[in-house]
Amino acid sequence: MTNGMADGTAGGGRNDARDGVCEVRDACGAGGRWEAEGAQRRLECTRSSGDPVAREAAVARAGLVRSIREAGRLTDPRWRAAFEEVPRHLFVPHYFLNVLGGTYERLSATDPDPRRRARWLAGAYADDALGTWLRDGALVSSSSQPSLMAMMLEALRVEDVTDRGGAGADAYGCEVLEVGTGTGYNAALLAHRLGDERVTTIDVDEDITKAARERLAATGHRPVVVTGDGALGCPSRAPFDRVVATCALPSVPPAWVEQCVPGGLILAPLATGLIALRVAERRGGTPRAEGRFLPTPVFFVPLRGEGADGRDGGVRAGTGAAGGAGRARRPDAGGGGGGGPGFGSDFGSGLRSASDGGADVGSGGGSGVGSGGGSGRFRGGAPVYGLPRAALRDGGFRFLLALAAGARSPTQVYELWRRENRPARNRFGLTVEGDRQWVWLDDPGGPERWALG
Questions:
Q1: Are 139 and 99 contacting, i.e. CB atoms less than 8 angstroms apart?
Q2: For residue 285, which phi and psi values (nearest 5 degrees)?
Q3: Among 271, 342, 337, 264, residue whose Cα is nearest residue 302
Q4: Helical packing angle, 54-70 and 36-45, nearest 10°
Q5: Residue 114 contacts by C-beta under 8 Å, 6 or more apart in sequence?
């Protein structure tokens, strides 16, 4: 498994082994289809890979990809190739179940019990988030629900053509910064698609980056792995065409906008949504980016960082959600707006450690809203007593409540939510201009807008 479409070229089918891991490239090019014989070759290759569960993993991986495709994701054959070929189980040699329930279970590839090893492998290829790193009872790194990862990677709209003089912002080979390395699995998917040299991944925790670097190398991938404060970006590797964050943000770090080329895209979790910002041409030297939220609800491990405002810290086991999109995993999940969260975000928080900031996470998947009727607390500390139980259980209302934290009272948020007939996430947008950031409904210049945080 290596760099996907190397040097931006399509075609050139290949089947070889490197570092004990088999690889097969798409011989059909962009928009082509995978030949059945290619899938068979990948399966046959696993016999000599040196991985004792390679064959079983290949079968499980094919099943995972099939389920993601059935859900309408992985329509691009190049991303599909990455998920078919990058072995997730090698990036999660152990993980924790029921982290947010308070009593967790550890599953490992080295467990002496073959039944538990089988459970570990099955879990590695389930469409679920996996907690991978705990520290002092806090979840600091995890591997996202694969279908959520597929959705985010497709939303990046990366392209493989290397001529920057091509047709528009999406017509050249993208340089990508990933904030939050975590297990390294997402970086491997990016490297498979774009090539090692086009991918930079950063995480604040040296233990996390060291382990990820080793796992990436073991699977034949060598993107640039940096230990540092992701909120500050990575100036030495800038400029970037894409920035993708894998931790819940209280705001968008200005450094990311500054380090993106005009026309570049920033994709990041904010409140309980995903914001997609296009970077504009600079006017007067002030960096600017603007865009809308995607319709999908997501829940991620909160940002930790000196380069940000430090409001959120790690998520402690048993206290809240830090997770993905998809099936509800917690009994107190409340309404998830079209399905509650899993609990993981791939990758770690990516940013320098800060205090927990006193945020009341409750059961709101990062929104900080309790799920009980007329009870709970607003993320900024304001009480939400008296609001209807149905509103507090509604994922869209919780998203808006988190998005307006510190700018509008819970009562004002509720009145807006009712007046606008329960607006979907993608009616909201964000503008970043220098140090100013503001949220808007429907129109950046419209009447419903407020400063973020």
A1: yes
A2: 80, 0
A3: 271
A4: 150
A5: none
Bridge-based pairing state of the strands 240-245 and 260-270: parallel
pTM over 0.90: no
Torsion of CA 404, 410, 411, 415, to 10 degrees: 40
Produce one character per residue of 389-415: b if its CB has 16 or more CB atoms within 10 Å, e if not.
eebbbbbbbbbbbbbbbebbebeebbe
- For the question of residue 375 being annotated catalytic, the response is no
Paired tokens of 240: 């970037």
Burial class (CB in 10 A: 0-12, 13-18, 19+), 257: buried
Separation CA 195–CA 202 (nearest Å): 17
Backbone angles phi, psi at 174, to 5 degrees: -85, 135
- Among the listed residues 49, 143, 144, 363, the single catalytic one is 144
How far out from the chain centre does Cα 440 lie? 23
CA 45 to chain centre: 30
CA nearest 425: which of 327, 292, 323? 292
Give me Rg for the CA atoms of the chain: 21
Q: What is the pLDDT along the chain (453 residues), one digit of tens a residue?
A: 333 322 332 233 333 333 333 332 332 233 333 333 334 444 444 444 589 999 999 999 999 999 999 999 999 999 999 999 999 999 999 999 876 666 789 999 999 999 999 999 999 999 999 999 888 877 788 899 999 999 999 999 997 644 444 444 444 579 999 999 999 999 999 999 999 999 999 999 999 999 999 999 999 999 999 999 999 999 999 999 999 998 888 899 999 999 999 999 999 999 999 999 999 987 778 899 999 999 999 888 776 655 545 333 333 332 223 344 433 233 233 333 333 333 333 433 333 332 222 222 222 222 223 333 334 444 444 556 689 999 999 999 999 999 999 999 999 999 999 999 999 999 999 999 999 999 999 999 999 999 997
